[in-house]
Write a structure and sequence with these properties.
It contains 8 helices and 5 strands. It is of the alpha+beta class and 192 residues long. Among the domains are: 97 residues, 2-Layer Sandwich (formyl-coa transferase, domain 3); 31 residues, no CATH class. The strands form 2 sheets. Strands 1-2-3 form a 3-stranded antiparallel sheet, covered by helices on one side. Strands 4-5 form a two-stranded antiparallel sheet. Strand 4 and strand 5 form a beta hairpin. The relative contact order is 0.12.
């Protein structure tokens, strides 16, 4: 999961990351759009000329398929802000799941953009243990990102929460050759 750090921040603190300025995307068929239910949808027309006519049909824009401003990828790039504004208005007319269904019927690349409130209950996230619960010595149970890769011969697992400040100081200093007495002396002098 490429967003593991940001997702952990949300799960622990409720902090949401800032979004990029999608209105300046050069390829309007490679962007995110807010739908009528206030949820986001990502479209991924990597080869925009191949998918343009089908995309325009789903969007109810059959009349602009041959419009010189939008006829091909180069023209759509030059007029991307104008097309994005049109698409923004149209996407707001229906909920995300309806758009996903319509686009997938036309074999268009799209995916719901789930926010952090949706991810922990996503069936695939749950089935793959991408989110897990671990015990924490001071706050109880913590829900956090699990191991996103499953290896058959060497499976990983979350064994516990991150250590507290100084939790392993004694063990680390002993690994560097200091005796228990020397470590105790460091503590008495306030060095650790």
């Amino acid at each position: 999961m490429l967003q593991a750090m940001a997702l952990n921040s949300y799960l622990i603190n409720g902090d949401l990351p800032a979004a990029r300025n999608r209105a300046e995307t050069r390829n309007p068929l490679m962007n995110t759009y807010r739908c009528g239910d206030d949820k986001l949808l990502a479209v991924a027309g990597v080869n925009p000329d191949r998918y343009w006519a089908d995309f325009a049909k789903v969007m109810g824009l059959d009349d602009i398929v041959e419009d010189p401003r939008f006829r091909d990828a180069k023209a759509r790039t030059e007029h991307s802000k104008e097309l994005i504004e049109m698409l923004d208005t149209i996407f707001l007319t229906r909920p995300r799941d309806e758009w996903v269904e319509s686009m997938r019927q036309r074999r268009l690349n799209c995916q719901p953009v789930q926010d952090y409130t949706e991810l922990p209950t996503d069936p695939q996230i749950v089935a793959n243990d991408y989110i897990t619960t671990v015990p924490h010595p001071t706050v109880g149970s913590l829900t956090e990102v699990g191991i996103p890769i499953a290896l058959s011969e060497t499976p990983g697992r979350v064994r516990g929460s991150a250590p507290g400040l100084g939790q392993h100081t004694d063990e680390i200093l002993q690994e560097f050759g200091y005796s228990l007495e020397e470590v105790a002396g460091f503590r008495e002098r306030g060095a650790v």
